[in-house]
């Protein structure tokens, strides 16, 4: 996976709104190609989001999630300029981690 995770985090009052777009094929393993062979499963299983040293989101994903998952969530306690780090792992052992600052 070479495409970066796209992260947008904005502070609104005392709430930080975060949008995370994770480029990933999210193949279920159930789709049969025109050759008659099932495409191998390849999907994100775990997502972690950190604001500074604090974990603000832990998620388990599975085959029911569409290609290039988009997560949107809010949390309290963020500050402008604080670093948001998003990490995912998939069922093949691949992983990706990217960062952005709260604006």
What can you see in these coordinates?
- The chain is an all-beta fold and 103 residues long.
- The protein is 0% helix and 50% strand.
- The chain has no helices and seven strands.
- The chain has a four-stranded antiparallel sheet with strand order 4-3-6-7, with no helix packed on it. A three-stranded antiparallel sheet has the order 1-2-5, with no helix packed on it.
- The two termini are 27 Å apart.
- The model has no long low-confidence stretch (mean pLDDT 96).
Characterize the main sheet. Answer: 4 strands, antiparallel
Secondary-structure element sequence?
EEEEEEE
Please identify which CATH superfamily we are dealing with: Immunoglobulins
CATH architecture: Sandwich
Q: What is the end-to-end distance? A: 27 Å
Rg over CA atoms: 15 Å
Strand order of the largest sheet: 4-3-6-7
CATH class categorisation: Mainly Beta
User: How many beta-strand runs?
Assistant: 7
Uncertain runs: none
Give the count of structural domains.
Answer: 1
Strand proportion, as a percent range, falls in: over 45%
What overall geometry do the principal axes of the alpha carbons give?
elongated
User: Which structural class best describes the helix and strand composition?
Assistant: mainly beta
Outline:
The chain is mainly β.
Provide the fold topology:
Blueprint: E1 6-12, E2 15-21, E3 44-51, E4 54-60, E5 70-76, E6 83-90, E7 95-101
Antiparallel strand pairs: 1-2, 2-5, 3-4, 3-6, 6-7
